[in-house]
Amino acid sequence: MRWTPLLFAIATLIPCSFVRADTATTALPFLRGADLSSLPAVEAAGGVFTDSGAPGEAMAILQARGMNAVRLRLWHTPNPSYGHGDLSSTLAMAARAESLGLAILLDLHYSDDWADPGKQTKPAAWSALGFAALRDSVRAYTQSVLLAMSAQGTLPAIVQIGNEITPGMLWDDGRVSGAFDTPAQWTKLAQLIESARLGIGDALGPGDSVAVMIHIDRGGDNGGARRFFDHLIAEGVSFDYLGLSYYPWWHGTPIDFRDNLTDLAARYQKPVVIAELAYPWTLGWADNTFNPVGDPSHLHICYDATPARQYEYLRDMIDIMTGVPNGAVEGWFYWEPAWLPGETFGSPWENVGLFDFDGEVLRGADAFSAP
Questions:
Q1: For residue 148, pLDDT beyond 50
Q2: Is 343 tagged catalytic?
Q3: Residue 164 is among the residues annotated as catalytic for this protein
Q4: Residue 296 above 50 pLDDT?
Q5: What is the 3-state secondary structure (H, E, C) of the chain?
C-alpha cells in the first residue's frame, strides 16, 4: 500500500502506518529470495507453472521477476513420501539454483521432520546418543553436507544452523524453553551450535567462504528476540547473520516488525535477514488439506487477501526492511511461494503462495524487483 497523506492520516487511528528512515548502501547485494524446498514434490506430482499463460519453470519465473536467491530446507532422514528435503533432492535444487546464478541459503533443520518453535526433534539416528557423541555427530553431519555441496560447485552463501530455534534445538539436549530454561541448557545449546559451525569450517577449502545464520521466529517480538540473542551472545556463540521469521498473524504488527528490526540491528551490530515472510492472496483453499492461514482474523486490517493487497503488503514490508538505518537488513525470503497441491497430495499453503491455484504467477512476485 503506497501511503498518500490522507491514508497516512487515517492510519494514525489504526496501526497501519510506519515512518520510513533514510536508506543506506551496503557492500553486499540485497537478497530477494524464496524458499522453494517443496518444488521437487510439486513438479513430480504434475504441478505446472505459467507466466501470462506461458508454461515455465517456477524458479526461472520468479528469477525473471527479480528473485536472486533460493532457500533450501534439509532434513536428516525425512519420510520418503515427502518427495523433497533429503540430501539428493536438495543437491539437485542447489544445482538448478547455481545454473541460474542464484545465491543459496541452506536451512539445516537437524531433524527428520519439521523443526520450529513447537518441536525440535532429534533425528532418529541420533536419538540414543550421549551429549558428547551428539556434538560429534552434528559436526560430522554438517561437514558431510557442505562437502557434498562443495563437490558439485554449489557451496551455499549462508548456512542456517537450525530452524526457528527460539526454544533451542535437538531436544532435549539443546532445549532452552520451559523447565529447560536454565544456564546449563543454554551452555549445551551453544555447544551444539558451535559443533555445527566447526563442521561448516571443516568442509571449506582455501578461498571458500560461508556465512552462518542463527534463525528464530520472533520477527515482531523485541523482548523475545532480545532474550534469545542476549543468552546466545553471553555464551560466546559466533555467527554472521541474525535471521528472523515474520508473519503478522503470529509475530505482531508491521510497526512491531519495524521497531524490532531497528532495535536488534543497533543492539547487536549484525546484519539481519528475514528468512521467512509471506501473506495470503486469498482465504480460499484449493483442496481439503488444512491451511494454517485462512481465517479473516489472520489478516492485517490494512491488507485484504487479494493478489493486489498481497503485493502491497510485500512492498510495505520491503520499505520497512530497507528503511532500517545503515542498511542493516540485507535481504528477505518468501516462504514456499510455489507449494501447489499435487495430484496425490494437498498443500497447506496454496493460498499464501505467489502462484494461483492453476500455477499462474501472481502480482505479488513483482515485489522481488521492488526498489
A1: yes
A2: no
A3: yes
A4: yes
A5: CCCCHHHHHHHCCCCCCCCCCCCCCCCCCCEEEEECCCHHHHHHCCCCEEECCEEECHHHHHHHCCCCEEEEEECCCCCHHHCCCCHHHHHHHHHHHHHCCCEEEEEECCCCCCCECCECECCHHHCCCCHHHHHHHHHHHHHHHHHHHHHCCCCCCEEEECCCCCCEECECCEECCHHHCCHHHHHHHHHHHHHHHHHHHHHCCCCCCCEEEEEECCCCCHHHHHHHHHHHHHCCCCCCEEEEEECHHHHCCHHHHHHHHHHHHHHHCCCEEEEEECCCCCCCCCCCCCCCCCCHHHCCCCCCCCHHHHHHHHHHHHHHHHHCHHHCEEEEEEECCCCCCCCCCCCCCCCCCCECCCCEECHHHHHHHCC
Amino acid identity at 284:
G
The CA distance from 79 to 89, in Å, is 13
For the cut 50, the answer to whether the pLDDT of residue 248 exceeds it is: yes
Domain at 30-369, CATH from 3.20.20.80, 3.40.30.10, 3.90.180.10, 3.60.15.10: 3.20.20.80
Confidence of residue 9 (pLDDT cuts 50, 70, 90): very low
Say which of 164, 194, 330, 350 is annotated catalytic.
164
Catalytic residue among 43, 194, 276, 312: 276
Query: Domain residue spans in the chain?
Result: 30-369
Residue written as cell 513430480? 44
Q: Which of 55-69, 212-226, 334-348 has the lowest mean pLDDT?
A: 334-348
Task: Provide the percentage of residues in the chain whose pLDDT is more than 70.
Answer: 92
Q: How many CB atoms lie within 10 A of CB 188?
A: 23
pLDDT over 80 (residue 338): yes
pLDDT digits (tens, 9 = 90+) for 204-225: 999 999 999 999 999 999 999 9
Average pLDDT, the chain: 92
